Amino acid sequence: MATTGTAATDHGDASVSGAGAPTGDEAASRGVVDATAPKLTAVQRVHEHVRERVFTGDYAEGSMLSEGQIAEQLGVSRTPVREAFVQLETQGMLRLYPKRGALVVPVSRDDIEAVIETRWAVERHGLERAVTAPGGVDARVVAGMRAVVEHQRALLAAGELDEFVNQDREFHRVAVAATGNAILIPLYDSLRDRQRRMVRRTVRDDHDRAADVLAQHEAILATLEAGKQSKLVKLLADHLRDTRATLLGIEDTAPAGTPPRGPGA
Asked: What would the DSSP string read from start to end of 127-192?
């Protein structure tokens, strides 16, 4: 049973209270208008427009984007489009070719393995902190994860797989945020775009795959609440290895509980 107090830290509270509500560019991509949000500059508009469509697959990996076409679609000049393309290139999403446009960079094997390895290190730490908290399992983490799981269950039933993907990251972030570690949390958040893009690839429009992910989340939550540290770490390892195998299109033959491999391993 979770016995630690329920008052959330600033980081933890954000990860729980935001579990059901779209924010920022995710809200924009779903047509949700926030009247209190600051007006975006032309560069920001282009950046979010392209970034969201790379995430959703509307701009497929390996496709070429035209400055002129994007400018016409958004009603802006080519200058903000060019600036946004440069930003997206530094973020690893696009590769620019003078006078030709921008290539949507495919997610590489090394990228997949590096993200999975980093997630393993950070998420494992967060779960171990939660399950060994003074006084018992951290109730904040249990409550936060349960809220996300319930939300994912509803999203899956409604067939809203894009938002299901967004909530996948929120599920794992709950334990990381609850650590209150001012270095670890930004490190984990820096994986956000890569993580979201990769999870979107594993689920896409595959209801069965999404159901498998949800079942794995439910098992992790139940094991955390039961305070079974060794099993909890093994379930996380299996969950991340399964994600890795799906992304790489390979069969996972490693024994249960084996940590996921990193680049070059």
From this structure: HHHHHT-TTSB-HHHHHHHHHHHHHHHHHHHHT-HHHHHHHHHHHHHHHHHHT--TTHHHHHHTTH
Q: Rounded to an integer, what distance in angstroms lies between the CA atom of residue 59 and that of residue 7?
A: 42
Count of residues making up the chain: 265
pLDDT in tens, 132-179: 999 999 999 999 999 999 999 999 999 999 899 889 999 999 999 999
Say if CB 193 and CB 107 are below 8 A apart: no
Q: What is the pTM of this model?
A: 0.76
DSSP for 50-102 reads: HHHHHHHTSS-TT-EE-HHHHHHHHT--HHHHHHHHHHHHHTTSEEEETTTEE
Sign of CA dihedral 220, 221, 222, 225: positive
Token pair in block for residue 9: 């830290």
User: In the structure encoding, which two tokens stand for residue 100, read together?
Assistant: 């030709």
Residue 108 CB coordination number (10 Å):
11
